[in-house]
């Protein structure tokens, strides 16, 4: 079995999760047994999996595993289905219902966001009105866990259940130095004929979980760490014959101008300090691989694309001039993406292309989004720049756009570049490590400009937006390159070679 280790799969994901989703689908397409492994307790996981068209057998969550709920049919549960005492009165609200026993408010039943009355939790109050416990319900319609609170309202205990309602995990909490709950002990109950196994917290349970996956695998196990902060240390503790690889999804050094000599990112340091423990390292770009090979000559570093395509003969390019929209940005909305510079560039473009439009897809901190919206208003771009949030169906939207822009400072290799190019969208980007020089053939299927040079960025945008012949040529070149060099089968053969898959 091939396990791709992640922290979570959320409603809004980074390129780390998207790369794992693409990979598990690729492996399964070619009949290789593979699963995404996640650590975080998440009652909405299986709803999210549906959003990204992931089947139950493609994702294995640690809590699902120990709760024996990996493959449970989904049923919709409403307040009426909870068999509340007949004497209780229910006051229905938009987000939750209040439950009364006479005049006493005894409980609240909360709903899953975006649904009509689908049960998500039930809070219980003591006779003083203090929260005493909360039952937590899974998206699939069963009670998954209970949280218990002390007199100060702080969490002191969690119990996790199997479908029979039996406790399979207990997690205890004590106050930290700030008085907030700190996990102090976790007990795994009645697992494999042992009444109790003791762990410090969920991180230590995760180490045991990975060891169990390897131990129970009838064939040799291969682990691929997608999030180094989640999985490098657990894999270092795993002293068996399983194969272990580490993807490097981020820029590896602390100094953006010195990838070879400056201190390593803290999550990657344990892996590169223990090269002999890992079978290899995986990057999305050749330029990052070259830097890592220079810095760590003994490390085996392999480049494997995170985006794969259909063969050129089986692919259809939507003509770039037939597309209704113009510019887009895809990625996190964060200061290190220098989106203020991108917005200012749009203002410069607007001076010559009055009707220019740019859509931003991605998620970000609310305070940062406020600064972007304020800048859009100050530059009088409210009709030109649109912050459209994260969209899981972005793959269906690329064909509407003509150019992708990127103003990153540094990146481990933005997936949006090859994704856009696979849809025939030329990319105009600042030069940075890593990605632009790996995917863009400057002057042929996109442009690379010096970091911070907004005037050059403006000129390149105007050059393509006002020359349909050149824009068409760039679009066709980008499309041909991605549908020739990164087809599903070609990338799969590279995985086969690395992992010894027959």
UniProtKB/TrEMBL annotation:
Keywords: Glycosyltransferase, Transferase. Residues 322-480 form the Glycosyl transferase family domain. InterPro entries: Glyco_trans_1. One of its GO terms (molecular function) is glycosyltransferase activity. It holds the Pfam family Glycos_transf_1. Transmembrane segments: none annotated. This is Polyalpha-glucosyltransferase. It comes from Lactiplantibacillus plantarum (Lactobacillus plantarum).
């Amino acid at each position: 079995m091939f396990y791709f280790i992640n922290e979570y799969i959320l409603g809004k994901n980074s390129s780390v999760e998207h790369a794992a989703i693409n990979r598990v689908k690729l492996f399964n397409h070619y009949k290789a047994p593979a699963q995404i492994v996640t650590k975080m307790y998440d009652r909405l996981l299986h709803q999210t999996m549906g959003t990204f068209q992931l089947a139950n057998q493609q994702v294995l969550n640690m809590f699902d595993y120990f709760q024996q709920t990996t493959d449970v049919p989904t049923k919709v549960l409403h307040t009426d289905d909870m068999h509340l005492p007949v004497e209780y009165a229910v006051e229905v609200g938009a987000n939750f219902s209040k439950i009364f026993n006479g005049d006493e408010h005894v409980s609240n039943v909360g709903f899953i966001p975006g649904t009509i009355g689908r049960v998500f939790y039930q809070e219980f109050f003591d006779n003083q009105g203090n929260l005493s416990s909360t039952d937590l319900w899974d998206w699939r319609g069963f009670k998954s866990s209970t949280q218990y609170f002390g007199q100060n309202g702080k969490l002191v205990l969690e119990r996790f259940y199997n479908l029979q309602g039996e406790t399979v995990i207990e997690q205890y909490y004590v106050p930290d130095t700030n008085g907030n709950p700190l996990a102090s002990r976790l007990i795994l109950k009645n697992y494999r004929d042992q009444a109790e196994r003791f762990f410090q917290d969920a991180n230590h349970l995760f180490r045991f979980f990975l060891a169990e996956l390897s131990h129970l695998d009838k064939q040799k196990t291969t682990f691929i760490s997608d999030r180094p902060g989640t999985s490098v240390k657990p894999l270092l503790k795993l002293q068996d014959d399983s194969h272990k690889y580490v993807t490097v999804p981020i820029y590896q050094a602390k100094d953006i101008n010195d990838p070879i000599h400056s201190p390593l990112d803290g999550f990657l340091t344990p892996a590169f300090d223990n090269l002999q423990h890992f079978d290899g390292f995986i990057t999305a770009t050749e330029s990052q691989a070259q830097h890592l090979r220079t810095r760590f000559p003994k490390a085996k570093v392999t480049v494997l694309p995170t985006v794969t395509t259909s063969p050129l003969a089986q692919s259809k390019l939507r003509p770039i001039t037939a597309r209704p929209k113009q510019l887009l940005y895809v990625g996190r909305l964060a200061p290190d993406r220098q989106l203020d510079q991108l917005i200012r560039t749009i203002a410069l473009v607007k001076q010559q292309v009055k009707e220019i439009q740019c859509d931003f897809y991605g998620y970000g901190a609310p305070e940062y989004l406020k600064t972007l919206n304020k800048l859009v208003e100050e530059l009088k771009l409210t009709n030109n720049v649109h912050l459209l949030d994260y969209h899981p169906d972005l793959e269906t939207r690329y064909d509407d756009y003509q150019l992708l822009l990127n103003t990153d400072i540094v990146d481990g290799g933005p997936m949006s570049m090859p994704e856009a190019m696979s849809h025939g969208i030329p990319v105009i980007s600042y030069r940075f490590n890593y990605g632009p020089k790996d995917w863009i053939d400057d002057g042929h299927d996109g442009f690379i400009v010096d970091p911070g040079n907004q005037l050059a960025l403006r000129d390149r945008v105007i050059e393509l937006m006002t020359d349909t012949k050149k824009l068409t040529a760039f679009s066709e070149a980008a499309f041909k390159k991605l549908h020739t060099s990164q087809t599903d089968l070609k990338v799969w053969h590279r995985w086969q070679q690395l992992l010894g898959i027959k």
